[in-house]
Each structure stands twice: as structure tokens, then as C-alpha cells.
Amino acid sequence: MGAAAVPALAQTGGAKNIVIASSNGERACAKAMEILRTGGDTLDAVVAGVNINEEDPADDSVGYGGLPNEEGVVELDACVMHGPTRRAGSVASIRGIKTPSKIAKLIMEQTDHIMLVGDNALRFAKAFGFKEENLLTEKSRLAWLVWKQSLRDPRGHNNWTDGLDAPHKQGAGPGAALHERFPGVDPELLAYAWDRAIHPPTGTINCLALNTKGEMSGTTTTSGLAWKIPGRVGDSPIIGAGCYVDQEVGAAGSTGRGEENIRVAGAHTIVENMRHGMSPKDAVMDCLKRVSRNYDHDKKRLAQFDINFYALRKDGVYAGGSLWSGQMSRGKFSPRKFAVNDGGASRLENCVYLYERS
Ligand code: ASP
């Protein structure tokens, strides 16, 4: 099928205001919709939306309060793409700035480059008046300390020797003396920290918007993989992986294990799938199958990570899809969802998925 398979706006009754995001994005979608309703730009809308998560110390996957790298330092990645001008901006491994999506947008708007990284990205942000701040909260510092401590335990997670891309170590239990090591810490908080230590979380917000003029934009922002090796960059700031927008076709983005997404250039793949006539749902499912194929569809290995994709076509049709039907956290199963706002209150909808998590 050719490009003609993408429904023209005229045939679908015109574009509408619609915002979709990862499951942590209900507030972001509502904020972005507020801006779209007043005729605001789609990129201004999604960036203002995700700024809520970036500035929220309770969201431990994005911006301020995000879980840090191995050395206890928060390093953030983000990108933006503006459909109408077909421009992009990106920042990786930036420290000390709560809102990396704003820096990615600034790079897009103020420079002839697309991506800045590390210390020089911070210097650039400061030149534009951004304040350098400590992004570690007491909660994320405790989670990091517990992770550090867990390295004493052979079952503890370690970027250098353990994981999907490195040989596995065998080991025993979680370390019974944890409470003794952290006396006086609220048991609930310690349970959270231990869960984070042994299951280093990924978490991010991707947000995509379409307005009544048919304009589209997207952004993805994250603190990346918890306990990462300093300098590790995930998919979020990679244009074509963490986010991609083609004004003629649609937009896509991703959250979850970035290494898998980079291997399939997920957001670009999904937009190309839609260009060639697939529905957003089929486009997302095809991308998930490519991830699965990279592990020869071995569910044992695939079970070790999560990855999610979001797609919004130019005619307002959208989908969210995940590798697994849901996730286990601290013994509880929750189904995979994504956030949508098409004018009323934001809501969570179910993701389509490739495999059932038992
Ligand atoms: N994709 C992000 C990364 O790998 C993390 C996430 O979305 O959870 O850095």
C-alpha cells in the first residue's frame, strides 16, 4: 500500500484536538488540551504538559525526583519534535535542570543543532537563564542507597555483570539485615526502595498532540534507567526512537527499556507503518513483534523487560501498545494503560499487547 492509504483529513471530517501520553500522563494531557483549546501551538502544549511530571518530586521516572545513576546523580534525557516546522531538538545526560524538555525545545529553537549532551548541555541551559538545582529528593536518595547496599547481595542488580546483555550471576535472597542497615526508615518506604533496587525501573513520559488545524507535535522526557552507568543514554532523546513526528502522517513515542527501542527505531518504524497504510494499532503491534523477534520470541528473556509504544495518526485515530499485558510491582499486577484527552477529562485506556503476563 502507498501513502494514499493514510486517510486524508477531508475524508475523515477534519482534525480534532487530541492528546495522548504514557499512563503517567493524565495531568499532562489535560494541561496540553487546555493550551490546544485556546489555539496554542501543539509543541507548547505537550511541553507544558510534561513539565508537570518533570517538576513533580513524586514521579521517580522523570525530571526532579527521578531515580539517579550508579553514582547517585540524576541524569535526564528528552526530545521534542514540531510537526509544522518539521524541526527537532534533543538533550541527553543533562544534570541539574528539572525540565529537560524545555532545553530540548530551546536547542530546536535557538541553535542550528539538534542534540546537546552532558555538561555542555547544562552550560547551554544556564546561558539561557535556567537554574542548576539538586534533582535528588530524599526518597530517591534512599532508593539509591538501598540499591548501593544491595550490590553486596549476589542477587543485587549490577549494570556491569548482570542483565539481558551480559552474563547472569546466580545468587541468594534480598539481604535480611536491610532494616538494620536503615534503622528508623519507614518500612513502607524501605519496601519501595528495595523493589526499586532489585527491579531497576524505567519510566518516562511521552506526549503527542494533534490540533484542529491538523498540526502535530511530540515530546519524550525521562530520568532513564535507574542506576544506569553514568553517561548511559536511552531511547528517549533519540529522534526516531523515543519520539517521531511526521506532519503528513502522524506521531509516535515510546516508554520502557530504551535499549530495545533503539534497536527497532520504534517511533520512526510506527510512523512509517502508518504511512504505508497500517492503523495505529497494527503499526504499534508490528513494532512490538520486531522487538520480540530480536529475542527469537523467547518469552523467558522478553519477560525481563517492558516496552510500550504510543501512536497518534493525523486523522485523530490513536493506539497504545505494550509487549506485556501488564506489569508486576511489589506483588501486584496492573494492566498496561495509556492516557488520552480528546476534550473532556483525561482518561486511561487499555493498551493492546503482544503477550499475556502471567
Ligand atoms: N525509555 C527510557 C530509557 O530507556 C526509560 C523508560 O521509558 O522507562 O531511558
Low-confidence stretches: 8-13, 166-175
Shape descriptor reads globular
Rg, alpha carbons: 20 Å
The CATH fourth-level homologous superfamily: (Glycosyl)asparaginase
Strand order of the largest sheet: 4-3-2-6-5-1-13-14
Fraction of residues in H or I helices: 25-40%
SSE string: EHHEEHEHHHHEEEEHHHHEEEEEEE
- Give the number of domains: 1
Helix count equals: 11
Could you characterize what this model shows?
The chain has helices spanning 26-37, 42-54, 100-110, 118-127, 138-150, 178-181, 187-198, 258-264, 266-275, 280-293, 299-302, and strands at 18-22, 76-82, 87-94, 115-117, 204-210, 216-222, 243-246, 250-256, 307-313, 318-324, 326-329, 332-335, 337-341, 347-350, 352-355. The chain has 358 residues and is an alpha+beta fold. An 8-stranded mixed sheet has the order 4-3-2-6-5-1-13-14. It has a 5-stranded mixed sheet with strand order 7-8-9-10-15, with helices on one face. It has a two-stranded antiparallel sheet with strand order 11-12. Strand 13 and strand 14 form a beta hairpin. The longest helix has 14 residues, at 280-293. Bound molecules: aspartic acid. Aspartic acid is lined by residues 61, 202-204, 222, 224-225, 234-236, 255-258. The site of aspartic acid has 14 residues, from strand 8.
Keywords for this structure?
15 strands, binds aspartic acid, Glutamine Phosphoribosylpyrophosphate, subunit 1, domain 1, 11 helices
List the helices and strands and how they pair.
Elements: E1 18-22, H1 26-37, H2 42-54, E2 76-82, E3 87-94, H3 100-110, E4 115-117, H4 118-127, H5 138-150, H6 178-181, H7 187-198, E5 204-210, E6 216-222, E7 243-246, E8 250-256, H8 258-264, H9 266-275, H10 280-293, H11 299-302, E9 307-313, E10 318-324, E11 326-329, E12 332-335, E13 337-341, E14 347-350, E15 352-355
Parallel strand pairs: 3-4, 10-15
Antiparallel strand pairs: 1-5, 1-13, 2-3, 2-6, 5-6, 7-8, 8-9, 9-10, 11-12, 13-14
Helix pairs in contact: 1-2, 2-3, 5-7, 9-10
This protein binds aspartic acid.
Residues 61, 202-204, 222, 224-225, 234-236, 255-258 line the site of aspartic acid.
